Amino acid sequence: MKLKGSLFLVHLDMDGVWLEGDISLLDEIRGFRPKPDLVKQTQQGAISFVREIAWYPPGQKGFLWLLDSLYVALRNCVYSANAIRGHYAFGLLEALQVFGLPQVDIKAMLLVREGKYSYRGSGSSVGKLPPLKDVERVCHAITNHVVSFSCGGLTDWHKAWKFDYWDERLIERAILNNEHQCSEFLKKMRNHSYFKSSLKKDMACIVDDHSK
User: Which domains, ranges and CATH numbers included, belong to the chain?
Assistant: First the structure.
């Protein structure tokens, strides 16, 4: 994680509280701040994903998937942009303010986060969600790229897959779009930290099945 310039380690260093275990491990991250070029790579990966999405599956679940995926990407963009300038704020509201996002877009981003909460709660409790035009506007404000999202589409199974986190989200979209049947993959996505290695194998098999 240090070699990849993980901002999560900075978050642990600044805000983490030791509870138990080998406290000397904290020495490994104390004072750690990633090189700007590594943070830039994280930022560019998130921006590329936002620009690549293009469409989301029909229905409420599909729109919630869009909000959840965008929230992760846009949050990463904001944290990365702030870190490149030497600002490390990990509370969302503070980070958005440090980034310089207008109040109207801050409100939209907070609603995007509500969509994430609803999606990860299986959509059982859906609160107020942002209009699509507001979602597209906040994407532009954070990534500096104009994007638009349409309802419905098909997965490009022949593209060059990287089998990273962002491709996991696209496979997840394909399953929600009924292009592939694999409820087990969705379960693993909800427990991502426990199935990280097996997810890559699952993705490779799914892509291989559809690319033949």
Answer: 1-34 (no CATH), 36-153 (1.20.120), 156-212 (no CATH)
